[in-house]
């Protein structure tokens, strides 16, 4: 690594010291901010192109004018340089690189592997549990649709283990023919394992083999005069054949991703059409962050390098544009995933049709996003005019309170900017130490916790603070800001109108003590209502999670000396928590492992 002087960076002198080996270079400005990460097969030649050319594109010239330091990392091969470049771009997010913004992991179907009766389940996150993972799927909807289908076809259980282990009779899924009730042993482990095997084969794309095996079993059952079994297998085979005919895409016999890119108005949309085992799994759209003057080919090249860095790679990647370093990317991906990967840009027949489909999807998604941004921008401008602000607000925060008769009170804070919701800045506050049902105290506590950091010079300051409620809630917000010495924030209450109908809300301006009725046609009110509704949704979902967690917790868990084994023994001996509560100390002592001291502690915990 070779740094240059921060005082006066002389690119020509720096280039003269460089090696001709492959590697990665990084440009920094005078504040130490990373501007750009690039890779090169010849560092001297590539870095020299930035400082030795008489003319450059405006984007490149703007970046070069800010360079105060350059660092290089020499690698053994160009392929290593490509991998390192992709890792650094994803980790460091340089300003002038094309950056894939994808902070959400892909969902999988999970088949547990350490139980007598395995379960199928939706999974997102680290894949470190024993069992098998099928996917990735482009969306949660695709996984749930597949799980619903698996339940109909193979009747493998999908219930939680805690629910499964505590059943004494079959559940509703058995009654409607979607489960074989392994929880109460209505199916043998051998037969259940066979159903699991069929499910695995189906998820691996071997549906034709499953159909053949089931058809053979149907004939055997018929020959043995077991007509009920034969009829059940016949229906299963018919359903599988129908599904196979509907979902199988002619020509997509291999794992394949079809990728198209469209750029308009400084926004790029990359649309990916997924095929696995000949079945279309749908599409997913991405909106990478762009530097100026980016071209679709550059976007696709950076997208592939970053996207497949930590994901399974299909055997074919079909692109709508020829990209730089196509052969190198193919070689790196082949080494990474252990099988041949082809990148194709000139395709015919069905693949050309798939590419047209991806291109149409990218264009439609991009058009929709641009229209959405323009609509959102108009709403922010209308809110500026409505409130008489000098400039459009850049950050809106809204607070709401949710509880059920005072139980499990949760406050939410959602954040909106000119590009829409900023979900990474959302916050929830579990409220404690107040009189149950006191919304004013809950609001005061949540706002205090949020704006204490602002008062200490930490955290972003909103331009507008929206409070879901009337003058009482607004007064709490003003008190908190005054107590903490936070100024310069416009506080607005959003009160429901008569009849609680949408469009009739009243905006309470805390600073001037005025009330505004924008009316149902006001774009500003549409924005405020959208932020308020999102805050309401976020608060309710947090409250429900907290309430369910509290209700699932047993009082016995708080008794010192009562672990999982003794708790289970108590509930089994008395038929549930109600039976334990009705028992006296002497009766509690009859349970194995419960002495008098522990029995008295249990009794006191349940009756105080």
From TrEMBL:
The GO terms describing molecular function are:
hydrolase activity
Compartment(s) where it occurs, according to its Swiss-Prot or TrEMBL record: Cytoplasm
- Annotated GIY-YIG domain ranges read 20-98
* Keyword Hydrolase on entry: yes
User: Which residues are in the UvrC family homology region profile domain?
Assistant: 258-481
Going by the entry's taxonomy, the superkingdom of the source organism is recorded as: Bacteria
Q: Which UniProt keywords apply?
A: Cytoplasm, DNA damage, DNA excision, DNA repair, Excision nuclease, Hydrolase, SOS response
Domain UVR span(s) in chain numbering: 208-243
Q: Does the keyword DNA damage apply?
A: yes
Q: What is its main location?
A: cytoplasm
Query: What does this gene product do?
Result: The UvrABC repair system catalyzes the recognition and processing of DNA lesions. UvrC both incises the 5' and 3' sides of the lesion. The N-terminal half is responsible for the 3' incision and the C-terminal half is responsible for the 5' incision.
Q: Subunit structure, briefly? A: Interacts with UvrB in an incision complex.
| Alphabetized NCBIfam families for the sequence | PRK00558.1-5, uvrC
What family name appears in the similarity comment? Belongs to the UvrC family.
Q: What is this protein called?
A: UvrABC system protein C
The protein's gene is named: uvrC
């Amino acid at each position: 690594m070779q740094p240059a002087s921060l005082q006066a960076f002389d690119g020509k002198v720096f280039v003269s010291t460089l090696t001709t080996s492959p590697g990665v270079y990084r440009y920094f400005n005078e504040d130490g901010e990373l501007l750009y990460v690039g890779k090169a097969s010849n560092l001297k030649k590539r870095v020299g192109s930035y400082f030795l050319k008489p003319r450059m594109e405006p984007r490149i010239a703007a970046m070069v004018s800010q360079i105060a330091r350059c660092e290089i990392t020499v690698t053994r091969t160009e392929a290593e340089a490509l991998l390192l470049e992709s890792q650094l771009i994803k980790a460091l997010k340089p300003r002038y690189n094309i950056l894939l913004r994808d902070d959400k992991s892909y969902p999988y179907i999970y088949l547990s592997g350490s139980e007598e009766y395995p379960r199928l389940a939706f999974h997102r996150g680290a894949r470190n549990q024993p069992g098998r993972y099928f996917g990735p799927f482009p969306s949660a909807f695709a996984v749930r649709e597949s799980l619903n289908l698996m339940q109909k076809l193979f009747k493998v259980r999908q219930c939680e283990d805690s629910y499964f282990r505590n059943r004494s009779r079959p559940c509703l899924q058995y009654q409607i023919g979607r489960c074989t009730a392994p929880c109460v042993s209505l199916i043998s482990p051998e037969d259940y394992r066979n159903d699991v095997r069929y499910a695995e084969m189906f998820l691996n794309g071997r549906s034709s083999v499953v159909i053949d095996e089931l058809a053979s079993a149907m004939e055997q059952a018929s020959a043995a005069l077991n007509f009920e079994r034969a009829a059940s297998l016949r229906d299963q085979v018919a359903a599988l054949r129908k599904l196979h005919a509907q979902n199988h895409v002619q020509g997509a016999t291999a794992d394949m991703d079809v990728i198209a890119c469209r750029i308009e108005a400084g926004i790029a949309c990359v649309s990916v059409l997924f095929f696995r085992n000949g079945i279309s799994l749908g599409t997913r759209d991405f909106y990478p962050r762009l530097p100026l003057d980016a071209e679709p080919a550059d976007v696709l090249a950076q997208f592939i390098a970053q996207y497949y860095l930590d994901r399974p790679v299909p055997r074919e990647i079909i692109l709508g544009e020829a990209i730089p370093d196509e052969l190198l990317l193919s070689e790196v991906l082949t080494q990474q995933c252990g099988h041949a990967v082809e990148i194709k840009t000139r395709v015919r027949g069905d693949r050309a049709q798939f590419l047209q489909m991806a291109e149409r999807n990218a264009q439609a998604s991009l058009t929709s996003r641009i229209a959405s941004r323009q609509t959102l921008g108009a709403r922010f401008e209308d809110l500026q005019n409505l409130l008489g602000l000098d400039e459009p607000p850049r950050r809106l925060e809204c607070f709401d309170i949710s509880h059920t008769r005072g139980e499990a009170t949760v406050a939410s804070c959602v954040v909106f900017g000119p590009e829409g919701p900023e979900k990474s800045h959302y916050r929830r506050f579990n409220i404690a130490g107040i009189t149950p049902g006191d919304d004013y105290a809950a609001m005061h506590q949540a706002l205090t916790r949020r704006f204490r950091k602002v008062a200490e010079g930490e955290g972003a300051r909103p331009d507008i603070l929206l409070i879901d409620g009337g003058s009482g809630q607004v007064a709490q917000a003003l008190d908190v800001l005054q107590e903490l010495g936070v100024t310069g924030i416009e506080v607005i209450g959003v009160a429901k109108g008569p009849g609680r109908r949408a469009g009739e809300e009243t905006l309470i301006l805390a600073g001037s003590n005025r009330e505004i009725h924008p009316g149902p046609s006001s774009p500003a009110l549409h924005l405020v209502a959208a932020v308020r509704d999102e805050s309401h949704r976020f608060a309710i979902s947090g409250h429900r999670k907290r309430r369910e967690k509290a209700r699932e917790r047993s009082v016995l868990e708080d008794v010192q000396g009562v672990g999982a084994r003794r708790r289970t023994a108590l509930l089994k001996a008395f038929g549930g928590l109600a039976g334990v509560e009705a028992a006296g100390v002497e009766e509690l002592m009859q349970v194995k492992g419960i002495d008098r001291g522990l029995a008295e502690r249990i009794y006191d915990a349940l009756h105080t």
